[in-house]
Amino acid sequence: MHRNGRRVLVVDDDVLIRKLLETFLSFHGYKVQCASNAKEALKLIATENYDVLITDYAMPEVNGIELTKKIRSIASSLPIIGISGTAREQEFMGAGANFFMEKPIALNALKETLEKAEELRA
User: Fold this and answer.
1) Which residue among 40, 54, 93, 119 sits deepest, i.e. has the most Cβ atoms within 10 Å of its Cβ?
2) CB-neighbour burial class of residue 112 (10 A; exposed 0-12, middle 13-18, buried 19+)
3) Around Cβ 102, how many Cβ atoms within 10 Å?
């Protein structure tokens, strides 16, 4: 299904995760940009418009929870999907994320979650 160029920002310090998500999402018609940390992500959000943000929890300097809080203060309606290899759902949701997925991520479940996130923007 082509997603009409919906823009997704993927934030993860693991290059393999970024590449996997970029490849999968691009295949499904999303326009994907990636950032390896919160600082890069905030720069991109300041200059670009995204339809969905996917952020990992464990990153150097600023973790995904803190990034989510910062994004909520500047882009309150941007749907955020938090991802983590450990149980962080309550923390992500408390920080303002709309969805949470535990790693390893089932790609079909990610696709369904992205579709739900897009509905929030409609």
Assistant:
1) 54
2) exposed
3) 14
CB atoms near residue 24 (< 10 Å): 16
Query: What ranges in the chain are assigned the alpha helix state H?
Result: 15-27, 38-47, 64-74, 89-95, 107-121
Which domains can be identified in the chain, with CATH numbers?
Answer: 7-121 (3.40.50.2300)
Can you read off the two tokens belonging to residue 9?
A: 């920002």
Backbone angles phi, psi at 47, to 5 degrees: -115, -15
Torsion sign across C-alpha atoms 4, 118, 47, 33: negative
User: What number of residues does the chain have?
Assistant: 122
**Each residue's pLDDT tens digit in the chain (122 positions)?**
445 679 999 999 999 999 999 999 999 999 999 999 999 999 999 999 999 999 999 999 999 999 999 999 999 999 999 999 999 999 999 999 999 999 999 999 999 999 999 898 77
Sheet with 99-102, strands from edge to edge, namely: 31-35, 7-11, 52-56, 80-84, 99-102
Q: From the centroid of its chain, how far is CA 48? A: 14
